[in-house]
Design a protein that fits this description.
The chain is an alpha/beta fold. The protein has two domains: 76 residues, 2-Layer Sandwich (Alpha-Beta Plaits); 314 residues, Rossmann fold, CATH 3.40.50.200. It contains eight helices and 18 strands. The chain has a seven-stranded parallel β-sheet, sandwiched between helices. Strands 1, 2, 3, 4, 9 and 11 form a six-stranded antiparallel β-sheet that branches. It has a three-stranded antiparallel β-sheet with strand order 5-16-15, with helices on one face. The N terminus is likely disordered.
């Protein structure tokens, strides 16, 4: 699983715990916010292998793992495991003084942005798809706009139950079959449904084998692309769409390093010809990461939207940044949560200059693991409504660029009093107003 770059540099990756986004500035040595004894190092574009080895030698790492190869924006990125007794902050200072190092930073820990609710289902519970303060997706359906299987979305999250009866027709990598070969040549063997970066394999659904996992990733997937018109369960914003899993959240959360790998996975697929329109990112935590910023920038260069949850701490992202939604890049859309009465959810983070719009995020029913359906609250639930709208717009406007899709979504936002002064648009998602 782990690959050594040099014989004397072994490779490993530690298991990590999950946290909430910080209210104060995150600290590199806080074990609740960053992985203890691990730092991410981004090297300069011009650095040689020897110069990178020299720089890493400043902290005598016990293991090194390559995170990004450095093609496109930024040089190579590596994850260094520090020897005992060396703090993250001391290592970052030592590495930062080397001319071959562009930046050194903690390996932040992130979490899914969700709050569970009682799992019950009643008629009319899919308010988020309807009129009123819903997404207005039903208006688009009534006009014959239900999505397209030629538009793809990457779900960077937990895994997806691709066999779920409301998802089984919409989750697949068309360039890959399960035959022990890398059919599409992207470096991942048998990634038919995506890749599990948390466990380093192609089993993106672990719901039945490693405990009750993948509810969250399956839930957001159902909102984006639950099969509609089949008389079963729920319907997503898109009835037809291509979904793929970039699983990096496990039982104990995930890390920046695996998030970078997941983002780059979809960028590579797009560069190899798969029409990825957007990725859904219903997670957050930790501090600013140059490695993750650069990965999102590479996605931007590949014309992929990065739709992100604003966060669930009820705070102002203008004054206390929340990542990844706060990264200032053209392809990022930050999403707050509203309830069925149009009120900003009590838990939702907001920001007049940093959060773009609101979307349904309270009492949202969708698909979950073991072929179930559940109701969740969170900006996690609001985000896939917007990602789904992006895919829906792309299906009807196939030549639109990511920036044009973003402009269409923000331009159609319906003014909403609870979001005035709380979001960039002052409004909520209107998927029927494109």
């Amino acid at each position: 699983m782990l690959r050594a770059r040099l014989a004397f540099l072994l490779v490993t990756l530690a298991s990590l715990a999950v946290i909430s986004p910080a209210v104060a500035a995150p600290r590199a040595d806080d074990p609740g916010l960053a992985a203890t004894g691990e730092v991410l190092v981004g090297y300069t574009d011009a650095s040689s292998e020897g110069a990178r080895d020299r720089a890493a030698g400043r902290v005598s790492p016990v293991a090194v793992e390559k995170v990004a190869r450095g093609r496109g924006r930024g040089g190579p990125v590596e994850l260094l495991e520090l020897p005992g007794g060396v703090s993250n902050s001391d290592a970052i200072a030592a590495l930062g003084s080397d001319p071959a190092v562009a930046y050194a930073e903690p390996n932040w820990i992130v979490r899914k942005a969700v709050t569970s609710n009682d799992p019950y289902f009643t008629n009319g519970s899919l308010w988020g798809m309807g009129g009123g303060f819903g997404s207005q997706a039903s208006i688009a359906w009534g006009s014959g706009h239900t999505g397209s299987s030629s538009v793809y979305v990457g779900v960077i999250d937990e895994g997806i139950q691709y066999s779920h009866p409301d998802l089984d027709g919409n989750v697949a990598n068309p360039g890959e079959t399960v035959n022990g070969l890398d059919d599409d040549g992207n470096g991942y063997v048998d990634d038919r449904y995506g890749w599990d970066f948390a466990n380093g394999d192609n089993t993106v659904y672990d719901g039945g084998s490693r405990g009750r996992l993948d509810d969250h990733g399956t839930h957001v997937s159902g909102t984006i692309g639950g099969e509609g018109g089949n008389g079963t369960g729920v319907a997503g914003v898109n009835w037809d769409v291509g979904l793929l899993s970039g699983k990096f959240l496990g039982r104990n959360g995930g890390t920046t390093a695996d998030a970078v790998r997941a983002v780059d996975y979809f960028t590579t697929l797009k560069q190899r010809g798969l029409p990825i329109a957007a990725t859904n990112n219903s997670w957050g935590g930790g501090g600013y990461s140059q490695a993750l910023y650069d990965a999102i920038a590479r996605a931007n260069a590949a014309d992929i939207l990065f739709v992100a949850a604003a966060g669930n701490s009820g705070t102002n992202n203008d004054t206390t940044a929340s990542y990844p939604s706060n990264y200032e890049l053209p392809n990022v859309i930050a999403v707050a949560a509203i309830d069925r009465n149009g009120a900003l959810a009590s838990f939702s983070q907001y920001g007049r200059t940093t959060v773009d719009l609101g979307a349904p995020g309270v009492g949202v029913w969708s698909t979950t693991a073991f072929s179930n359906y559940s109701s969740y609250n969170g900006t996690s639930m609001a985000t896939p409504h917007v990602t789904g709208a992006a895919a829906l717009y792309k299906a009807s406007n196939p030549t639109a660029t990511a920036l044009q899709v973003k402009e269409a979504i923000l331009g159609a936002a319906t003014p909403t009093s609870s979001l005035t002064g709380k979001t960039v648009t002052g409004g909520r998602l209107n998927a029927g107003g494109f």
